[in-house]
Amino acid sequence: MKAFYQLLYQHDTLYKEAAKAVTKGETPLPKAEAVTPPSPKPAVATVPVPPKPTATVPTVQHQVLVLIDEPGGLSPSDAIFLRKVLEAVKVNPDQVDVLNVADTKLMDFRPVLASKKVHHLISFGVPFIQVNLEIFMNRYDPKKLGGVNFLLAETLPVIQSDEKNKRALWGALKAIFFG
After folding, report:
1. What CATH number corresponds to the domain at position 116?
2. This prediction's pTM
3. How is 30-61 classified by DSSP, letter by letter?
4. Is 146 helix (H, G, I), strand (E, B) or coil?
5. How confident is the model over 115-148, as pLDDT tens digits?
6. Cβ-contact 133, 118 below 8 angstroms
7. Domain containing 159: what range?
8. Residue 140 and residue 168 in contact, taking contact as beta carbons nearer than 8 Å
9. Inter-residue contact 156 to 81 (CB < 8 Å)
10. Within 10 Å of residue 112's Cβ, how many Cβ atoms?
11. To the nearest 10°, the Cα dihedral for 150, 155, 158, 163?
12. Using CA atoms, how far apart are residues 159 and 176, in angstroms rounded to an integer?
């Protein structure tokens, strides 16, 4: 209960009134009796709790996992660009799992990461919270957590059309794959 009041009054200054001593010649004020109103009985309503949707766990066969959010799949130009990006960092595109999360409702990647099969997770425009990972990152700022390199980047069409994003992606990929 103390924590509740601290949270409720955290920005207010509260004062505790000290007992005032009565001097000669003053008549003490009569003490007011505290009246407590009868406490109403709370109404207990039973609300059925809907079952939590079960998250699907993706199957992964390779050490590099790429997340995309492209309804309808990758366009041919985006697929070619992704292949070039992977080949530039000496990664065989056939040895990469590309997962499109656009058509899925809820995915849970925690079991995948716990299995230690994935070593690099590159997300092109997919926030990690969307795949049930509470990792907050800046774009193009790779982080290694639990033995897995994470990289958050813009979507492939945005990177492909902007030279600044291409340079940022290249710098981040070099940091991950070439040390």
Report:
1. 3.40.470.10
2. 0.67
3. PPPPP-PPPPPPPP----PPPPPPPPB-----
4. coil
5. 888 899 999 998 888 888 888 889 999 999 888 9
6. no
7. 64-177
8. yes
9. yes
10. 22
11. 20
12. 18
The structure tokens listed for 79 are 């697929």
How many Cβ atoms are within 10 Å of 62's Cβ, its own excluded?
17
What the block records as the tokens of 124 is 């092109």
Q: Using the predicted structure, report yes or no on whether residue 22 has a pLDDT greater than 70.
A: no
Q: Is residue 27 part of a domain?
A: no
Question: In total, how many domains does the chain have?
Answer: 1
Short-list 90, 168, 91, 94, CA closest to 124? 168
Q: Is 45 part of any domain? A: no
- pLDDT tens for 159-172 read 999 999 999 999 99
| Spatial contact of 57 and 118, defined as CB atoms under 8 Å apart | no
Classify residue 79: in a domain, yes or no: yes
90 assigned to some structural domain: yes
